[in-house]
Amino acid sequence: MHSQANFSVKHMMVSTVHGSFSGLKGSVVYDPNHPDSSKAELTIDATTVDTRNDMRDRDLKSENFFNVAKFPTITFVSKKVENAGTGKLKMTGDMTLHGVTKEVTWSVEGPAAGVKDQKGNLHSGATATTTINRKDFGLTWNKSLDGGGVMVSDEVELTVEVELVEKK
What residues make up the domain containing 57? Predict the structure, then answer.
């Protein structure tokens, strides 16, 4: 409920389009004393893409981009987690997007120190960021611009913000 996956990509080489996915599910196993034994899995419902523009969202869901009818989810499964300094981790794993699986490395801030809610449940949070080339995942649609450049950049910045709740 308090987690979100966000992306940003250059449009026409002059502005940045921001979007998000609200349908996230996943799990994290984290031991602050042994971060190398940590694991994370994430599934994103690609049909929840939202750029605050209905026409663009329909295009992103179409065969031009995510093709959600054929590939309704985006997944990530960690293979390796390393300490990257105080309060930071480096997490490498397999991301599957548009039916293509590639290794991706995320920079992670957190997990933050836990806080108990009114029912005694322990909550924590983390933010993971990475940059991918969308063409590596088969997202190749583009259009050349008359003045040079392209309609959509290949580089896409991804940010996943999660609120973790300790499972009893």
Answer: 4-165
0.85 surpassed by pTM: yes
The answer to whether the beta carbons of residues 106 and 84 sit under 8 Å apart is no
Please state the domain count of the chain: 1
Give me the CATH number covering residue 66. Answer: 2.40.128.110
| Predicted confidence pLDDT, tens digits, the chain (168 residues) | 688 999 998 877 778 989 999 889 999 998 888 988 999 999 999 999 999 999 999 999 999 899 999 999 999 999 999 999 988 999 999 999 999 999 999 999 988 888 999 999 889 999 999 999 999 999 888 777 787 777 788 889 999 999 888 887
